[in-house]
Amino acid sequence: MEYTDTYKTLQAPSEGLYKEKGSKFLAYAFPVSTEQQIKEIITQLKKEHHSARHHCFAWRLGAENQSFRINDDGEPSGTAGRPILGQIQKQELTDILVVVVRYFGGVLLGTSGLTNAYKLAANEVLKNASIIAKIIKYPVEINFDYLATNELMQVLKEFGIEITESHFDLKCRVKIMVRKELTAIVLEKLNKTENLNAVIILDK
């Protein structure tokens, strides 16, 4: 079976460099999962490069309902964040932050020159990055009587699913992560078991 419930992101942080007419564009890419994490990384980079004139960035979050943001950080509108985001989209990446730090070299590049420089800096850092595919998974909570444990374990073994959280008593509860394309069939099989109820957790 060929699955389509995957997305591309970075395996680890990456760096790149682009130079144009004396200006240095230091590019950094990070795998991220929350806006708070993004804020912390940008704050740290601003501390490390406090003498740089601009710290422009773009990020994209979410495997399905994607959100994104761009920031030109004082550069002419549309010349920095947007071309950085364009390279992220071109590579079909998500859960990613790309920051380009510019050290001004004394020569004005113009809007087209700036746009091209930020695009090429972002391209350089992504070219150096290790890109991986991850599986979209849904959290599922299962409530069941202890006597239904064997049937539950058989289904989990059939699909190679591991339990992420568990509580066993007369009334039991476990949580599992199920890949998106298997969710319907796994829920159907589980809910055929007597005294067992499995549901997707909508509020993660």
How would you sum up this structure in a few lines?
This protein has 204 residues and is an alpha+beta fold. The chain is built from 5 helices and 11 strands. Helix 2 runs parallel beside helix 3.
What does this molecule look like?
The chain is an alpha+beta fold. Helix content is 30%, strand content 37%. The chain has five helices and eleven strands, in the order βββαββαβαββαββαβ. Strands 2-3-6-4-5 form a five-stranded antiparallel β-sheet, with helices on both faces. Strands 9-10-8-11 form a four-stranded antiparallel β-sheet, covered by helices on one side. The longest helix is centred in the middle third of the chain and has 18 residues, at 110-127. The radius of gyration is 23 Å and the shape is elongated.
Number of strands: 11
Overall morphology: elongated
* Strand line-up of the largest beta sheet: 2-3-6-4-5
Major sheet summary line: 5 strands, antiparallel
The helix-strand sequence is: EEEHEEHEHEEHEEHE
- Mean pLDDT reading: 93
Roughly what percent helix?
A: 25-40%
Number of helices: 5
Q: Give the class from helix and strand content and strand pairing.
A: alpha+beta
N-end to C-end Cα span: 28 Å
Strand content: 35-45%
Please give the radius of gyration in angstroms: 23 Å
